[in-house]
From TrEMBL:
It is found in: Nucleus, Nucleolus; Nucleus, Nucleoplasm. Its main location: nucleus. Belongs to the NOP53 family. InterPro entries: Nop53/GLTSCR2 (IPR011687). Keywords: Nucleus, Ribosome biogenesis. It comes from the Eukaryota. The keyword Nucleus applies. The gene is RRP16. This is Ribosome biogenesis protein NOP53. PANTHER family: GLIOMA SUPPRESSOR CANDIDATE REGION GENE 2, RIBOSOME BIOGENESIS PROTEIN NOP53. It comes from Dimargaris verticillata. The keyword Nucleus applies.
Length: 87
């Protein structure tokens, strides 16, 4: 008499599903860390928003200006000191 494979009973656990392959493009995209790349891109985007381009490529004269004229009014502290001296 030939041996017939037995059917699984209710007490035996079912076989676990096979694990999918990790060689495909989905797995590559899923298992990589993009934090450092995203941080670098966000920093370069912020530079472009602030100055219209990358700050390290611009000349110092385009980024800064020297104020040689000064204010016409004078400082508030000077007005307070003269007011206190006269009273």
């Amino acid at each position: 008499m030939p041996l017939v494979p037995s059917r699984p009973s209710k007490d035996t656990p079912a076989a676990a599903p096979k694990q999918r392959s990790r060689k495909g493009k989905k797995a590559w995209r899923k298992n990589i860390d993009l934090n450092d790349i995203e941080t670098g891109l966000e920093n370069s985007r912020a530079d472009e928003r602030l100055g219209g381009g990358k700050l390290h490529e611009r000349a110092n004269e385009a980024l800064f200006q020297i104020d040689t004229g000064g204010d016409d009014k004078g400082m508030v502290v000077d007005a307070v000191i003269t007011f206190n001296d006269t009273s």
